[in-house]
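Key idea: predict the complex, not the pieces.
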Amino acid sequence: MSALAVEGLIAGYEPDLPIVREASLAVAPGEILAVLGPNGAGKSTLIKAIAGLVRVYGGRVLLEGEEITNAPAHTMVRRGLAFVPQTENVFANLSIAENLDLAAAIVKAPRARVGALYDLFPDLARQRRLAAGRLSGGQRQMLAVARALVVAPRVLMLDEPSAGLSPKLVGQVFEKLLEIRASGVTIVLVEQNVKAALAIADRGVILVEGKERVMGEAQSLMDDPAVAELYLGRSGRHAGEGA
Amino acid sequence: MLQLIADGLVVGSVVSLGAVGLTMTYAILRFANFAHGELLAWGAYLALSMLGILLAIGGAERMVPLSPFSFGWELVVAALVACVGAAAIALVLDKLLFSRLRHGAAITLVIASFGAALALRNLLQFLWGPIPTYYSRELQIAIPLVPRDVLGGMRITPDQLLVLALAAATVVGLHLFLTRTTLGKAMRATALNPQLARVAGVDVDGVIRATWIIGAVLATIAGVLAGLTVQLRPQLGFDLLLPLFAAAILGGIGNVYGAVLGGLIVGLAESLAVPLIGAEYRAAVSFLVIIAILLVRPQGLLGERT
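Result:
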């Protein structure tokens, strides 16, 4: 059974103007799936629709076989699905500790879990009383991922975690994602930074105009110049040089 | 001078309690609720009716005061029941009116709140009549706190002292609630970013309900305290509306602690202005405060520039 499956999904902000158009994909347990595609392809809308933030007009979303189509967004974490938005993904007016404690309290997570996350993100542990709004971009991204992990999700979705980060910080964030995957969490990664995403992903799916056009092993997508040229907007030789 | 400060702090405490509810509604729901003043008036009058019921049940004509205060235990119980009633009114108002308009423009909600305020005020006057009244007609002896030869001295009644103490206790309680409880943190999170709050698992609709309930409870406390220290009249909410907005804007709209500070400053400014401009024009002070703060520091004293 797939950890997460999307079947013929139609979603968007207006019923007559869907952005996601009959998209289908499946993510195996413990897998990292990179969702790629040109700007405006509907990548972010797709995972927001899965997360319950954008209305689904057709098709369905299955989390470990259970249908969660159009379930209220706030119920997703209790179902085991966590989502890290691209921007404004931490509560800037709360401290690091309050961000994590709030997430823990909502799902009644044991205190030890927050402690374990401080071990995983020692940078956050050192300044836990600091307001999240005062963190650097990379630290904010780490906190956003940590906040999502407090709920012990079985599936973690991230919307462009590399956006606005230096290559060094992107490397650090993606290393953490590999550590998280090693603990058994399935990851769906929407990215513009094609090279970095495919480097850690098991498989990739390329979305064009709201529908999946190409799916395959990450390595084969990396090596396929036609794919890069046709769907990623650049030649295969430069396919890896992020957006 | 000292007496004016004491009077200002008492008025300011009532304004602070009302302004906190107003600013919380703004922070969570993102609109200026002009019906908030009416929640104060309704809370105060619901307490009056409940007081009448309790006295009738007890077969008493009037309260036996809990010395040194001017009121008996019946008013305490009546105020608690009134809190429930005012919260119910706020929730019904949200369900029938505001929730249906929430996804439209903020100005629609503001205009709707004007309409709701008019309806609530007139309904209140229809039900209880236009004549001002009191919870208790017991006379209180003011306690001299500072001798008359020191800046004119300061005298304060036990009821007024209770107003100050209750307002301080409510603010401390609210601070602990916002910083120590899950619901409090969820409210702060929702105020900042409702969509992220949803993603983080916060039931934003539940937070909205909690906001209405807390706002209505604080409004009721403010209304009862205003009725206790001044008098009850149907225009109570309307008269306090301008000071409430002045306090919320002065403190930084959406900032709970700013609303408390703003309330105290507005109360003091009104009181200190009385010898200069006369009591009949004291309400104009709130208006001047709003204009001044919008010109000098639009984000308010504790608000952040956006």
